[in-house]
Every structure is written in structure tokens, then in C-alpha cells.
Design goal:
The protein is α+β, with helices and mostly antiparallel strands. It has two domains: 41 residues; 140 residues, no CATH class. It contains four helices and nine strands. It has a four-stranded antiparallel sheet with strand order 4-3-5-6, covered by helices on one side. A three-stranded antiparallel sheet has the order 8-7-9, with helices on both faces. It starts with a strand and ends with a helix.
Length: 193
């Protein structure tokens, strides 16, 4: 006799027991594969050809592939962000959740890499995304140094880049609001002519 939690099943032979065990293993394996497929499809950074938009500013991944970030929290992914600026906003707004993985695009290759393993460059002459002081990530230290040689900036860690993003937030938000007001006024003026 075998208990399944729903009652008792009478097993007559060892062969019957082995057959039942194989069926249970196949069903369990099928369940795990199905669950894994659903989980993989729900991760925004793994969906091929997906041109998602940043949750906060609406910039498209296709345009910001060199600075794109993804934060995965203990309760599942939060989504994709155009830059460290917008990813930092998400970290602040979800401070009750624990980030288990932060991915960032390699500036040159545009592939997502572990942000804490990246070689970051803060500052330099190259304009940043949603910020006046740029923060770029590179998978290889040689690439970060090559970038610094061409555009300037300072080699840094993820912690230093996050600190810089939080320090810059007030000025960046003011600049973004000013640009939006100007664009709005330009649109109003164009509509009246």
C-alpha cells in the first residue's frame, strides 16, 4: 500500500511500483521544465528581440542598449531601466525588497553583465543617459581604460557608481524637468502658429 496524500493506492508488484515511480518522475520533470520556461520568458533581459521601454522615463532598450540595466529582486524581476539613474530610482522606491541580481549593459558590446563585476567609469566628456555625470559599465577593464583614454572619467566600482547616481539625483531631476518644460513650451508655441 502507498499513500499519495489523496488516499491509498494498492500496488500489487515491484514492477507496478517502478512503473508508477517512472510516471511520477516524468510528470515532475515536465513540471520543472514548464515552470523554468515560464520563468525564463518572464525575465525581460532574456527575451530575444524585445524592445521594452524604461519603466520611469520610457526610453527604449534599442536606443539605450549601451546603458540598459535590469534589477532582479527576491520576489522576481522589477524590469528594465535605461540607465543607472532610473535603476537607482527603482532601488529607492523598492527599498523593502532585496535585489538578488543587478545586470548592466557593457558599453561597447551591449550585452548584459553582472553589475558588481563590471568595471565602471564615472564622468568624462561623453554625455550620460538621464544624468549630467555619466556612469558607464564595461565587462573588461581594458575596455574601461580605453574609454577613459578617449573620453576621460574615473575607474570605479558599482558601489561608487551608485553613490554618484544618488549624489547626482537632485541636479539630474531638475535638469530633466527643465528640458521637459522647454519641450512643452516649444510644442505649445508650435501649435499656436
Amino acid at each position: 500500500m502507498l499513500s499519495t496524500g489523496h488516499g491509498l493506492i494498492r500496488i500489487e508488484s515491484t514492477e507496478q511500483a517502478e512503473d508508477m515511480e517512472r510516471k511520477l518522475m516524468r510528470r515532475s520533470l515536465l513540471f520543472v521544465i514548464t515552470l523554468s520556461a515560464v520563468a525564463l520568458c518572464s525575465l525581460p533581459h532574456l527575451a530575444a528581440g524585445d524592445d521594452e521601454a524604461c519603466f520611469y522615463c520610457g526610453m527604449k532598450r534599442s536606443a539605450q542598449g549601451h546603458s540598459w540595466m535590469v534589477i532582479e529582486y527576491d520576489g522576481g524581476p522589477s524590469g528594465g531601466f535605461c540607465s543607472l539613474h532610473c535603476a537607482s530610482i527603482d532601488l529607492v522606491l523598492h527599498r523593502e525588497r532585496t535585489p538578488i541580481r543587478i545586470l548592466v549593459a557593457d558599453y561597447f558590446q551591449k550585452n548584459l553583465i553582472e553589475a558588481d563585476r563590471a568595471h565602471w567609469v564615472i564622468g568624462g566628456a561623453k554625455a550620460g543617459v538621464m544624468t549630467t555625470r555619466a556612469k558607464w559599465a564595461f565587462e573588461r577593464k581594458e575596455d574601461a581604460k580605453k574609454f577613459i583614454d578617449e573620453y576621460g572619467g574615473k575607474l570605479a566600482t558599482l558601489d561608487a557608481a551608485l553613490k554618484a547616481a544618488f549624489e547626482d539625483m537632485y541636479g539630474d531631476i531638475l535638469l530633466i524637468q527643465k528640458k521637459r518644460r522647454t519641450m512643452h513650451m516649444d510644442k505649445l508655441n508650435a501649435d499656436h502658429h
